[in-house]
Amino acid sequence: MSEFQRVLAPAKLTWSLHVGSRRENGLHEIDAEMLTLDLADELVIVDGGEGIVLESESGARANDLTLGSENLIMRALDLAGRRAAVRLKKVIPMGGGLGGGSADAGAILRWARVEDSRDALQLGSDVPFCSLGGRARVRGVGEEIEPLAFVERTVVLFVPPCAIGTAAVFQAFDGLQARGGVHHDRNDLSDAALLVEPELGAWRACFAEATGHEPILAGSGSTMFVEGTKESCGLLGVDSLVHNESKGMLIEAKAVPASFGDPGVRLP
Q: Which residues are catalytic?
């Protein structure tokens, strides 16, 4: 009987982000603090099998997820030189800046015991951190990982109904830099994301009014967050916010240590 292995792929939250110069390959230097959350996809893997079977929660927005050779799970298996069948339960909302695809790739690399961040970088700038997890300072273009002591944190995430492309946000950032520079205390991409998706400003105001706190953009967006629980933010029992007849999701999540995603649970 084939043996299955269950691996969790926790979402990535960019706690702070400062963006530096652009390299010749077009990627930007960053200096970020990242952490993983208990909001996680689940992969059930059978070694030597083939293909991906998708199960998706409604909030994951995974209708357009490709399951072919371009999927990051398939690319991670190819990088590791492994074959496997994967049942993917998609929980992390796609297109929200929470690293869902990178988290899945990182889970495969942990399962396959691929530990070199330079290898992981071939799959994307978030994959080296996602393959490690926990809390870390991330520099370079994502390949320089400095693990940091775990800190217990709880956040309320708000995921607007709009998705934002990372490349478009960095392009807008370059334009802003050329006109005089950009620097924020927590996230240098905040203004650029608003240029790419102006509706994000209305959602940020809606979230700020609901919580009484100034939201922080997660990476290139569109997800934003405040520190605290739903209860402390006055949102106990509230799962969404509505603006102009559109609805965005509210999710309470906790920081988790690097061991949270370890491929240690075996299923018969």
A: 12, 126
Q: What was the pLDDT predicted at 264?
A: 53
Bridging pattern class, strands 84-90 and 52-56:
parallel
Q: Are 114 and 120 in contact (CB under 8 A)?
A: yes
pLDDT confidence of residue 24: 84
Residue 13: name the closest of 131, 157, 142, 163 by CA.
157
| Domain closes at, from 100, 135, 151 | 151
Domain range for residue 19?
A: 4-151
Total number of residues shown for the chain: 268
Residues 129, 184, single domain; the answer is: no
Q: Please indicate, yes or no, whether residues 135 and 158 belong to a single structural domain of this protein.
A: no
| Residue that the structure tokens 């400095």 belong to | 146
Rounded Cα distance between 232 and 236, Å, is 8
Q: In sequence order, what are the residues at sequence separation of 6 or more whose Cβ sits closer than 8 angstroms to the Cβ of residue 232?
A: none
User: What pLDDT does 2 receive?
Assistant: 61
Contacts of 236 (CB under 8 A, 6+ apart): 230
What is the count of structural domains for the chain?
2
Give φ, ψ of 158 to 5 degrees.
-120, 125
Say if CB 37 and CB 260 are below 8 A apart.
no
Q: In this model, does residue 261 exceed pLDDT 70?
A: no
